[in-house]
Amino acid sequence: MPEIRVRLFASYAEAAGTDELSVTLPAGATAADCLAAVRSASWASRVPPGPALAVNRRYAKGDVVLQDGDEVAVIPPVAGG
Amino acid sequence: MQAWLTERAIDVAALLAAVTADGNGGTVVFLGTVRRSKEDGDVEAIEYSAYREMAEPELARIVQEALAKWPGARIALQHRLGVVPTGEASLVIAVSAPHRADAYAASRFAIEETKRRAPIWKKERLASGAARWVEGRPAGGEP
């Protein structure tokens, strides 16, 4: 069962009270499945329907299949520059 | 080579020096600075935070894409993190190219892609002592 490191940032991290979670998922789980697992928490009402996701530090679509040890980031709307 | 991210005031002269080249006749330097406006309220500073491990490679990818589109260009870019007071630069992009058309185009590409893709966020710090997250734009994927 893949163990995934989930990174949270900015307003999402504030809402969750943490900037990092560990999530264990069934084999073959996707990035979207990981997001759904994270969103089951009460603070997750702050997360809009389709935040950007990154897998291993690159933007990724929800259908990317995760491997054990992958890092998934839930990316709030960005405001750099 | 300059780091992509810094916690200190950005050294604009160093970024300019990094792109100076004999063959490049047009140079453009863009500064994004923290501004204070009546509509925004009494903003004294903006606090920038980032997903550093991804921001660095993403900024590197943006610069590599620009260099592929405009061969001959030289680009130096640095984003500041932490508390940036009003009037100071949060982002500086220096671009040189043989001629000015490419310098302008590459500079524009770099700022637009940085704003679209860099996993960086900002929180306004007001004179009252209050702080509020700035609404960003949905992060883009690969171009």
* Tertiary shape of chain A: globular
| Broad shape of chain B | elongated
Estimate the helix proportion of chain B, in percent.
25-40%
Largest sheet of chain A: 5 strands, mixed
Q: Measured on Cα atoms, how large is the radius of gyration of chain A? A: 12 Å
Using the coordinates shown, work out and report the CATH topology of chain A: Ubiquitin-like (UB roll)
CATH fold group of chain B: Aldehyde Oxidoreductase, domain 3
Q: In the residues of chain B, how many domains can be counted?
A: 1
What is the H level of CATH, i.e. the homologous superfamily of chain A? Beta-grasp domain
CATH architecture of chain B: Alpha-Beta Complex
> Low-confidence parts of chain B lasting 5 or more residues at pLDDT below 50?
none
Features:
heterodimer; A: 81 residues; alpha+beta; Ubiquitin-like (UB roll); five-stranded mixed β-sheet; 2 helices; 5 strands; globular; B: 143 residues; Aldehyde Oxidoreductase, domain 3; four-stranded mixed β-sheet; four-stranded antiparallel β-sheet; 3 helices; 34% strand; elongated
How would you describe this structure to a colleague?
The complex is a heterodimer of chains A (81) and B (143). By secondary structure, chain A is an alpha+beta fold. Chain A has a single domain, classed as Beta-grasp domain (Ubiquitin-like (UB roll)), CATH 3.10.20.30. Chain A has helices at residues 10-16, 31-39, and strands spanning 3-8, 20-24, 52-55, 58-60, 71-75. Chain B has 143 residues and is of the alpha+beta class. Chain B has one domain: Alpha-Beta Complex (Aldehyde Oxidoreductase, domain 3). In chain B, strands 1-4-6-2 form a four-stranded mixed sheet, sandwiched between helices. Chain B has a four-stranded antiparallel sheet with strand order 5-3-7-8. In chain B, a hairpin with a 4-residue loop joins strand 7 (120-126) and strand 8 (131-133). In chain B, helix 2 (52-69) runs antiparallel to helix 3. Chains A and B meet through helix 1 of A and strand 3, helix 2, helix 3 and strand 7 of B.
